[in-house]
Write a structure and sequence with these properties.
Blueprint lengths: L3 H11 L4 E5 L2 E4 H17 L7 E4 L5 H12 L3 E4 L6 H10 L4 E4 L1 H5 L3 H7 L5 E9 L2 E8 L12 E6 L9 E5 H14 L8 E4 L6 H14 L2 E4 L6 H11 L3 E4 L1 H9 L13 E4 L6 H10 L4 E7 L6 E4 L14 E2 L4 E5 L12 E6 L6 E2 L3 H7 E2 L2 E10 L5 E6 L4 E3 L2 E3 L1 H9 L4 E11 L3 E10 L5 H11 L8 E4 L13 H7 L6
Parallel strand pairs: 1-11, 3-4, 3-5, 5-6, 10-11, 10-12, 12-13, 13-14, 26-27
Antiparallel strand pairs: 1-2, 6-7, 8-9, 9-19, 14-15, 15-16, 17-18, 18-21, 20-21, 21-22, 23-24, 25-26
Length: 507
Amino acid sequence: MATTIELLARNAAEYPHDLFLVEGPRKFTFSDFRSRVLDLGEKLASLGVGEGSVVVLIMTNSVEFVIGLLASHHCGAAVLPFPPRSTPAETRDILEQANCSAVLTTPSLLEHSHLAGVASEARISPFVITVRAVDPKSLEVMITLDGTVRRDQMLNEVLLLMPTSGTTGEPKLVMLSEYHLRTNAKSFSTAMELKRRTEVFYSALPLYHIFAMSVHLFPALILAGTLIVDPDPFFVRDFVDGINRHEATLTACVPYMARLLADSSLTLNLSGKSLRYIILSGDNTPEKVVCSLRQHTSTIRYVRSYGLTEAAPRVAIAPPRDFSVPEGSVGKPLPGVDIRIMSESGFPQSSGQEGEIQVRSPSTMAGYYRNSELTAETVVGEWLKTGDMGFLDDLGYLFVSGRKKNIIIRGGENISPEEVESVLLSIPGIHEAVVVGKPDPLLGEVPVALVAADADFSLPDVRRYCRTHLSSLKLPVDFICINSIPRLANGKIDRVRLRREYSEIRT
């Protein structure tokens, strides 16, 4: 199997003038893009960065991000993409946790951020390097802080070092190899029946998240397609205009983006002439949102999927030609992937029975960096324990019901927050909802609902609705209105923060 760098070289040799990467007015052919990757890769190598080193990439969606990612791969380093809006403490912690050798960023980000100060104060003293693609023929690389290169043999085969979302505690670093990422992207492309040299991938998702890499960046390389990266915050008007202007064939959304699209009349302007697929992932996208989207644009397929970082990341998808996918299902396993459902006591569950989703896949992670104990708990034999709850129906379709570690235990009975949230989101006027556990001296925990709703939101009506759709066990004891639900960079609900801050929120 060819490496990512070999794929880029092959595409540049066979299709040198084909458009590969577009960001705003900046356009790079395969040939020009490969030349800039080699420029930066040689600079990194001259500093001693290579196999076993870690390069932390702190950039927004940009040409420089993709150049930095592949240039680091070119010299054999592992890349850790990290959100540029992180706090100084978060940035310092990740640099030290990863034993970082070099930080790649852009001049504008360095100028308006805490990065230089944080890097100089960190225990590991990494190089800080700014990168700017002046034009397709020229790359400006500046060393703004000298550092020390470190190597770890554990990372010799690692291509990406991905922080988990941290929704259930301290972030962990997932080690993914070239083989893991290529295999997963190829399986996704096969399941979606994507075509070589014809696909235009539009990424409004942040490229530092593995979802965007797996459905946009790596498939574009494998298929010699075109990647459009949107550097700006998500707005429906800009998204629709960008899709139509570039004649994109595939894009992807996390749930909050899907909700905004469903609520906007501008979505009606999406062109079904080019755009075939919108991939949905992240937290469960409410069924009413999917139905609304389908009514807006009947010619576009909204494809549910399921994945996790530890599986590099796609696990299941509803294939585009499968018109019998049951409502609420995330589809069937990708080619080469097996799924089983296990009970709490460790026995396989029958069709329709809920349990923990476990995955056997060629793209399962190499492990958690410097955490062999947790790796052994998470990957048992050939099976990855996802920590997600769900079931398979008689036809093998997967349904995801919630996160095992998010389960609220009320008087010894398990409550899935996602199930309660689904009911709340079906109520007109409620835009976002999250359910967390509140300590209770008698029952251990009780559910509390935090909702973002319209101004004319009626709490008594919501209580009545919930009483008719939820058992008394699952009924929240409190309903609290907040302006918005805090989310992580990848769009997932920040449950850790909500549980931590709940004591500050009162009715």
